[in-house]
Write a structure and sequence with these properties.
Elements: E1 24-25, H1 27-38, H2 43-47, H3 54-57, E2 63-64, H4 66-79, H5 86-91, H6 101-107, H7 112-121, E3 131-137, E4 140-146, H8 155-173, E5 180-184, H9 197-200, E6 212-215, H10 229-248, H11 252-262, H12 270-276, H13 281-290, H14 295-313, H15 318-324, H16 330-341, H17 345-352
Length: 354
């Protein structure tokens, strides 16, 4: 479960990653890696300098940190500088079906106004890094796009990807409708500007004061063909509960678990992790106790999850699994695994494949 050590010198981590620390589905990264593979990149290059592994990539239920997705984007941008409109191409791969209940909620909204309300309120359930906000000017809806918190090296890619993904959502709930009256970008006109017109339905304006989309008069109150207010309310309630659960999981224990996952073969001790988090070991233990856990519990959870994955999916001997998890020998690993699960690693593997 290690990422190959090959490095792309240009693909270093962006200087800042100012995003909300809410985990997100790995599906977006799967789409991005597929985009990279389509342009000749290998998985190691796409995942370079992240906490992700090829095994994680295969788990469609995995939850990842947003900064890891940004790093994948950075890797693509750094490795494919000669590919025009890469962000637009990426955005074309995002459709309502990949967003789960958030996407279903949008698909069942009765009007674009209701769609915008749910989409913006629960935007953290999407894959957007751009912050969208809706304003009314003389009764006409204006959607503002704020990309100021996105790191500069990936800002163009992210803005264009999120714009196209947003447009895809509208296109899917209102097939054949051209909702935009005007589209402005506060960025220089790119050489591939003609690629925007088939997406927007109009010619966008560049070098403008802000990124903004002006909708057609009356568009926000158009009845949507698949609108069902009852189902939309039920989906919105599910979105609210899902987002609440995500936010409650963003404490110190998540940071500790992520740090342990980065190097399971040489798992750091409490003192090392505390220093990395600018805490004393005593403060770290106290904070974890307040969150209902402990450093040892988190370390055991990480090792157990990785052990079960290696035993189930990798054709490795027990000594190799033990080594990858930082144990001195197979006997120590077997003892720990029995403590976690009540059965031996061999019995677990046998039951898994039965």
């Amino acid at each position: 479960m290690t990422i190959p050590a090959s490095r792309n010198a240009a693909a270093t981590r962006p200087a800042t990653i100012p995003v909300e620390p809410i985990t997100r589905s790995i599906i977006s990264v799967q789409l991005l890696v597929r985009l990279g593979r389509d342009h000749g990149l290998d998985i190691a290059t796409c995942l370079h300098d992240t906490a992700l592994t090829p095994e994680t990539l295969d788990d469609s239920q995995a939850e990842i940190r947003p900064e890891d997705e940004l790093q994948v984007i950075h890797n693509l941008v750094a490795a494919l500088p000669s590919v025009p409109a890469l962000g637009l191409e990426a955005g074309s791969r995002y459709h309502l079906g990949i967003y789960g209940v958030w996407g279903f909620a949008l698909a069942t909204c009765p009007t674009p106004r209701a769609l915008a309300d749910i989409a913006l309120r629960y935007l953290d359930l999407s894959f957007a890094f751009v912050r969208f906000s809706l304003e009314l000017h003389g009764g006409i809806g204006v959607l503002l796009m704020d990309d100021s918190r996105v790191p500069a090296p990936v800002r163009t890619f992210v803005r264009e990807r999120d714009f196209v993904a947003m447009n895809n959502a509208l296109t899917e709930v209102m097939p054949g409708v051209r909702p935009f009256r005007r589209v402005d970008f506060a960025a220089p006109e790119p050489a591939y500007s003609n690629a925007f017109e088939p997406i927007c339905g109009i010619t966008p304006h560049f070098d403008q004061p802000t990124h903004r989309i002006e909708f057609q008069p009356g568009f926000l109150d158009t009845r949507l063909p698949r609108g069902d207010a009852l189902i939309a309310r039920a989906c919105e309630d599910h979105c609210r509960r899902l987002l609440d659960r995500k936010r409650t999981r963003q404490g110190l224990s998540v940071q500790v678990r992520d740090r342990l996952l980065r190097a399971p073969h040489r798992m750091p001790d409490c003192v090392t992790v505390a220093a990395e988090l600018n805490l004393s070991p005593r403060s770290l233990r106290r904070h974890l106790r307040e969150e209902g856990t402990s450093f040892r519990t988190l370390a055991d959870e990480v090792r157990r999850a990785l052990a079960e994955e290696l035993l189930a999916k990798a054709n490795l001997k027990l000594a190799e699994v033990a080594s990858r998890l930082g144990y001195a020998d197979a006997a120590s690993f077997v003892h720990a695994f029995k403590r976690w699960t009540g059965q031996s690693p061999s019995a677990f593997r046998r039951d898994f494949w039965r």
